[in-house]
Amino acid sequence: METGSAHEAGTTGAEDSTGAAGPASPTATAGPGGTAGPGGTAGPGGTAGPGGTAAPLEPEWIALPPGLLRMRRLLLVVWLGLVTLAAGLVPGLLAGPAWAACALPPLALAVWGWVMLERNWRSWRYAERADDLLISRGVLWREETVVPYGRMQLVEVTSGPVERHFGLASVQLHTAAAATDATIPGLDPAEAERLRDRLTELGEARSAGL
């Protein structure tokens, strides 16, 4: 009696243990290296799959202040205004009123330059990245200059008489290679000094290998 009971109990226990554990679900089976298989969230090595890959961050671009546009437009009006006046007044007085039409070409050039100056001003921008400074400019032909911090030798702030009148300053970057020299014009003096100090500090840190 005891032997039969033990045999029956063992058989029943085996059946219970066998029936309790069903086949493993495909989505719950761990893949190689302990990562989740197809249908799981993580891919091999615990990294996110193609749908979860983070895109690289875009640089934070900084535009130039509008004071640079006002300064350049004023210079355009002054110089081409004098040329237009001379081209229309002098021939009109010497050769007749019909020759005053000679003022039309410089006048058209002034209108075209007025529009192009704004487009050029909008194209200027710069971005401070982790290892370099990126400068972008150009309307018809876009040009981007990458200035590594570790190659900067001199950063200076300049401001001519006209720039000082409009409260502007320029930052000039001098590097070990002349091809990577760059200038950022038309900045506020406070921003120009901040950029100079920051670039100088980063350049010294990169040169020292910190």
Descriptive overview:
By secondary structure, the protein is of the alpha+beta class. The protein contains five helices and seven strands. It has a four-stranded antiparallel beta sheet with strand order 1-2-3-4. It has a three-stranded antiparallel beta sheet with strand order 5-6-7. α2 packs antiparallel against α3. The chain starts with a helix and ends with a helix.
Number of strands: 7
Tell the overall outline: elongated
Largest sheet: 4 strands, antiparallel
Q: How do the SSEs run, as a string of H and E?
A: HEHHEEEEHEEH
Number of helices: 5
Residue windows where pLDDT falls under 50 for at least 5 positions? 1-50
**First-last Cα distance:** 84 Å
Query: Which class of secondary structure composition applies to the elements?
Result: alpha+beta
SS strand fraction: 15-25%
Radius of gyration over all CA atoms, rounded: 36 Å
Mean pLDDT: 77
What strand order characterises the main sheet?
1-2-3-4
Approximate helicity band: 40-55%
Keywords for this structure?
5 helices, four-stranded antiparallel β-sheet, elongated, 210 residues, three-stranded antiparallel β-sheet
Secondary-structure blueprint:
Blueprint: H1 2-20, E1 62-63, H2 67-95, H3 104-123, E2 125-128, E3 132-137, E4 143-148, E5 152-158, H4 161-165, E6 169-175, E7 182-187, H5 189-207
Question: What is this structure, in a nutshell?
Answer:
The protein is an alpha+beta fold and 210 residues long. The chain has helices at residues 2-20, 67-95, 104-123, 161-165, 189-207; strands at residues 62-63, 125-128, 132-137, 143-148, 152-158, 169-175, 182-187. It is built from five helices and seven strands.
